[in-house]
Amino acid sequence: MRLIPVALALFWGLNWPAVKISLSLLPPFTLRLLGLGSGALLLFLLARLRRADILPARAAWPGIVAGGLLSIAVFNLAVAWAQLSTSTARAAVLTFTMPMMSALLARFVLGERLDGRRALALLLGGLGVAVLAWPALRAAASGADPSALRGLVLPLTAAFGWAAGTVCLKRWPAPGDRVVVTAWQLSIGALCALAGMLLAGESFPLQGWSVRVAGALTFHIVLGTAAAYWLWFVLSERISATTASLTTLAVPVVGVLGAMALVGDRPAAQDWWGFALVLAGAALTVLGSVGAAARRA
Q1: Contact (CB, 8 A) for 162 and 70
Q2: DSSP conformation class of 2
Q3: Which of 144, 199, 252, 270 has its CA 20 to 30 A from that of 292?
């Protein structure tokens, strides 16, 4: 049990550079189809081994569809395109504005109170995004790099999809086995990736493979998707989901360090200030949720 948070941080964190390496050969929709589709199949197999009912109850489908479209499809597809537009480190940290976005959406959609801690978290996260956004905004405004804004908008779109899916699942909880629910959500994401692959005319590359790319893709499918979700379920079944979410605080840190070691990212001093502000806001948000859960208990 003690090693599960460490494994999750490593699997999800190192999945960022693994995806970046895989994208050097595989088109983004094709990569996501392989990752999400294989992850769904492995989770369905796990559900059968657990003798769980594969077909969810009718009441679970609104949450499954909302989570599949937002938390899985929008998040994963936006992340893939983001890594083609900016550094892996920046994409990982900007995506981790999700806890702050979730708190803000919960305020307007669910009527949850925005206390002082969450307000401070939003302020810190906003300042962090502003610090990270400034070089992209300057490059786009000067005409030096008109596409620089994509590297800002796409990770924030991924974070919004993740946050919106989380809030939707609070609004429409999906009863049933969590492995089965997530397997169906991954299936919805895989179907969206398949549609994008067909519309974009992508095809699976038969040439250009290397040990590095094959290893990164294997890591992404087996450890970064299927095993990570399975470990997440094991962890959240033993402790509260809110407490388990503390594990995610290490993911962007591992992602940034992994990107530096594996894909050669070299964040500038301004990037580190932005990283620190965003992660401080995320930590305040998650720790505030843990404290609220403890008080209710």
Answers
A1: yes
A2: T
A3: 252
